[in-house]
Design a protein that fits this description.
The protein has about 525 residues and is of the alpha/beta class. The protein is built from 21 helices and 15 strands. A hairpin with a 4-residue loop joins strand 3 and strand 4. Bound molecules: iron/sulfur cluster (SF4).
Length: about 525
């Protein structure tokens, strides 16, 4: 959005005004009276960027342009005035101007835990430590045995955020039970769903939380080495993760004999090469080993035989970034948010026909209505105007997920209730659609994606997704008849049942869920012809 240009313009303008500004400085050298311009991670409110957050005062300016900078320096920084024009206007509440994020519904209706630290300078480990960073790891290393670390994670109820929702502590416990003198922790940063960018923002904005989560996982299972596998399309995430590893090593929170103990842990950052299927854990392991990224049948599970045949834990970015807080503040506090079976918070990438697109974090159990209408600010038409009655559906969980309809607006979003309606949390993409959206074309879009990304190892996925795509083309282009829908459904079920890995097993979900809830729309396409 041009935020870095605004930052540079601000630095120049401050210099012109005779205000000393410090752009690059380590936190330990900072003085309260100095003026700093910090580069933060993503603050989530994409629709309103570039954002300029001014402290003290909790002022948040939105859609800041370079041309606004002289006025910001003169009026706000020098005279303490607030420029109304740059504040967020809450149209739903009498067009009131919101001064800071405490007043903005997009922020104040969220619960930002994993994303909270995305507002600090990600390149400065001391800012992270100043907010309690590495305290959880220190406790896990110095005060707890590996069994206790696993037990704390189990007690917290933390479930994997990569899609499956498997209990993280149990995964650690199984890997701890596999006896071996070498074990690994892998952070899965191969987020590839269209419309999802949560893990990217966490790696870019809060990289030390990911490293600390890996350290605690390593302590739990008895590993001394870890890999962060980041997709190559995220160059800034790769850069920030590498810099964070270097900084953590430089100040001694990563490396040998940590916190004076006999526990050592090293982290390597590795780039993926653009294959969606490498998000599947056995394919990811093959990719790290230098082989073609193709899934393998399980068992053996990575907990028994993973990277280089050694016991391995693979957790997703958001899961790992949730871990430090559990060990710093305790599992009880973690469990106090969310639902009984899905504790904690979840990040979602909110996109599509909604007024406030961006990255959000809410407790599990929050309703779709709260997300779409209050945090998201309402549904928009194709011209971008808010027309709340126009809500048609939300695609949740990307190409593996399903569709949620207006009848499900009050459904609490958690692992189990989503499963009960044929959808899944997945990675957390939320694409809002208005009534002008053709649901069959949406299903086709996701089918095209999975068909492209099928690795070709097994026939049901390789050929089945191709057939499903051809049938969807027939429906959209007017060549289908009534039997086409039956054939589409039958093929979808065969792909689901016969595919080897999660990609194939879940590829039919968007088609099956839209057929279930919007069958009349598919039939309308068929009827056009007959
Ligand atoms: Fe490859 Fe698809 Fe088979 Fe998975 S289900 S192994 S992606 S062909």
């Amino acid at each position: 959005n041009g935020s870095l240009d605004v930052r540079d313009a601000l630095a120049k303008e401050l210099e012109k005004a005779g205000i000393d500004v410090i752009l690059e400085v380590k936190a330990e050298d900072r003085k309260k009276e100095d003026t700093y311009i910090s580069k933060s991670g993503c603050q989530g409110f994409c629709q309103m960027g570039p954002l300029l957050h001014i402290e003290p005062g909790d002022i948040l300016y939105t859609k800041v342009k370079i041309a606004d900078v002289p006025e910001i320096v003169e009026r706000t920084l020098q005279r303490g005035e607030i420029i109304d024009r740059l504040l967020y206007v809450d149209h739903k509440n009498g067009n009131c101007h919101c001064k800071g994020d405490a007043e903005i519904p997009f922020y104040n209706r969220q619960k930002r835990v994993v994303l909270a630290n995305c507002r600090i300078e990600p390149g400065d480990v001391r800012e992270y430590i100043a907010r309690g960073g590495y305290f959880g790891a220190r406790k896990a290393v110095l005060e707890m045995k590996p069994e206790e670390v696993c037990q704390t994670a189990i007690e917290s109820g933390l479930r994997g955020r990569g899609g499956g929702g498997f209990p993280t502590g149990l995964k650690w416990k199984f890997t701890l039970a596999s006896k071996n003198d070498k074990k690994y922790v892998i952070c899965n940063g191969d987020e590839g769903d269209p419309g999802a960018f949560m893990d990217r923002s966490v790696m870019e904005g809060n990289p030390h939380a990911v490293i600390e989560g890996m350290m605690i996982a390593a302590r739990a299972i008895g590993a001394d080495e870890g890999y962060v596998y980041v997709r190559a399309e995220y160059p800034l995430a790769v850069e920030r993760m590498r810099a964070a590893v270097k900084d953590a090593e430089a100040i001694g929170v990563l490396g040998d004999n940590l916190f004076g103990s006999d526990f050592s842990f090293r982290v390597n950052v590795m780039e993926g090469a653009g294959a969606f299927v490498c998000g599947e854990e056995t394919a990811l392991i093959a990719s790290i080993e230098g082989k073609r990224g193709m899934p393998k049948p399980k068992p053996p599970f990575p907990a028994q035989s993973g990277l280089w045949g050694k016991p391995t834990v693979i957790n997703n970015v958001e899961t790992l970034a949730s871990v430090p807080g559990i060990f710093h503040k305790g599992p009880e506090q973690y469990k106090s948010v969310g639902t009984e079976k899905s504790p904690g918070t979840k990040t979602f990438a909110l996109t599509g026909h909604v007024a406030n697109t961006g990255l959000i974090e809410v407790p599990f159990g929050t309703t779709l209505r709260e997300i779409v209408y209050n945090i998201g600010g309402g549904v928009t038409n194709n011209a971008g105007e808010i027309t709340n009655e126009d809500f048609k559906a939300v695609q949740i969980g990307g190409p593996s997920g399903g569709c949620l309809t207006p009848e499900m607006l009050d459904l609490p979003l958690d692992f189990d209730s989503l499963k009960s309606v044929g959808a899944m949390v997945g990675s957390g993409g939320l694409v809002v659609m208005n009534k002008q959206t053709c649901i069959v074309k949406i299903a086709r879009f996701f089918m095209q994606f999975t068909q492209n990304e099928s690795c070709g190892k097994c026939v049901p996925c390789r050929e089945g997704t191709r057939q499903m795509l051809a049938l969807l083309d027939d429906i959209i282009e007017g060549r289908a008849d009534r039997h086409t829908l039956e054939l589409l459904e039958e093929t979808a079920k065969a792909v689901q049942l016969g595919s080897l890995c999660g990609l194939g097993k879940t590829a039919p979900n968007p088609v099956l869920s839209t057929l279930r809830y919007f069958r009349e729309e598919y039939e309308a396409h068929v009827l056009k012809k007959t």
